[in-house]
From TrEMBL:
Residues that span the membrane, as ranges: 27-49, 70-90, 102-125, 137-164, 176-197, 218-240
Keyword presence, Transmembrane: yes
Protein name listed in UniProt: Lysosomal membrane ascorbate-dependent ferrireductase CYB561A3
GO molecular function, one term: transmembrane ascorbate ferrireductase activity
Chemical reaction(s) catalysed: Fe(3+)(out) + L-ascorbate(in) = monodehydro-L-ascorbate radical(in) + Fe(2+)(out) + H(+)
EC numbers on record: 7.2.1.3
Origin species: Hippolais icterina (icterine warbler)
PANTHER family: CYTOCHROME B561-RELATED (PTHR10106), LYSOSOMAL MEMBRANE ASCORBATE-DEPENDENT FERRIREDUCTASE CYB561A3 (PTHR10106:SF38)
SMART domains, per the entry: B561
Subunit structure: Homodimer.
Highest taxon listed in the record's lineage: Eukaryota
Function comment: Transmembrane reductase that uses ascorbate as an electron donor in the cytoplasm and transfers electrons across membranes to reduce iron cations Fe(3+) into Fe(2+) in the lumen of the late endosome and lysosome. Reduced iron can then be extruded from the late endosome and lysosome to the cytoplasm by divalent metal-specific transporters. It is therefore most probably involved in endosomal and lysosomal cellular iron homeostasis.
Lineage of source species: Eukaryota, Metazoa, Chordata, Craniata, Vertebrata
Chief site of localization: membrane
């Protein structure tokens, strides 16, 4: 068999380069789309609780519970996803790194505060209604996610923001921090999806159209769950994309 000519041999690399270029998406438009999707998730969970679940209050009733899904989706999914993508912004690739570290840690801390408030809402509702706490898979998975999140934030603060943390410790912990960042987000997405499903099972029964008959509320809430899943997958995909990762630098500014 004759060897391929130089022109024929170049067809493969050229096709591969062309297909890669076609799949290449600029980060900022992608980020704008992702931000819109995140805001849509927050708006939808708020609409669900307001329109179908009776709104919000702090009196220990089911309206107190409604703060739980809103705060969890806002904090543990959307705001946490935004924190995870800070270092993918091209403007963070040059100059001092410390301000971006502070922004990353602050967004994560804000997500954690909203998450704790969301947990407080569901515990207050359960206690006022005499409902046992922590009996479902959703509750176990959600609490495990929050505990892992808190450990992640404390460890990240100690390793990357405290000035006396040695360079070897930062280098050792960095891949662990990145791995658990994606893991926590996907656990949060799974917790939200299971929580939506659990709420629909509890709510759509006696006196309402059953869940299995797919009333409008079920369609709306299931769509919300799918959008949350898409948001989480896109964030993890962005974190894994090599061309969007912050280039390593040995300059003194980058090590701040």
């Amino acid at each position: 068999m004759a060897a391929p000519t130089e022109e024929e041999g170049a067809v493969g690399p050229r096709c591969h380069h062309r297909s890669s270029a076609m799949l290449d998406v600029p980060f900022l438009p992608f980020c704008a789309f992702l931000g819109t999707l995140g805001l849509l998730c927050v708006a939808m969970v708020g609409t669900w609780c307001q329109h179908w679940r009776g709104g919000f209050s702090l009196d220990g009733s089911s309206r107190t519970f409604n703060w739980h899904p809103v705060l969890m989706v806002t904090g543990l999914v959307v705001l946490y996803g935004a924190a995870a993508l800070v270092y993918r912004i091209p403007h963070t690739w040059s100059g001092p790194k410390l301000p971006w570290k502070v922004l990353h840690g602050s967004l994560a801390l804000g997500a954690f505060v909203l998450t704790v408030l969301g947990l407080a809402a569901v515990f207050r509702f359960h206690n006022s209604q005499g409902t046992p706490n922590m009996y479902s898979l959703h509750s176990w998975m959600g609490l495990a996610t929050v505990l892992l999140f808190s450990c992640q934030w404390v460890a990240g603060f100690g390793a990357f923001l405290l000035p006396w943390a040695p360079a070897w410790l930062r280098a050792l912990y960095k891949p662990i921090h990145v791995f658990f960042g994606s893991t926590i987000l996907m656990l949060a997405v799974a917790s939200c999806a299971s929580g939506i499903n659990e709420k629909l099972f509890f709510s759509l029964k006696n006196g309402t159209t059953q869940y299995k008959l797919l009333p409008a509320e079920a369609v709306f809430a299931n769509t919300l769950g799918l959008l949350i899943l898409i948001f989480g997958v896109l964030v993890v995909a962005a974190l894994a994309r090599p061309s969007w990762k912050r280039p390593d630098s040995d300059s003194p500014d980058s090590r701040q």
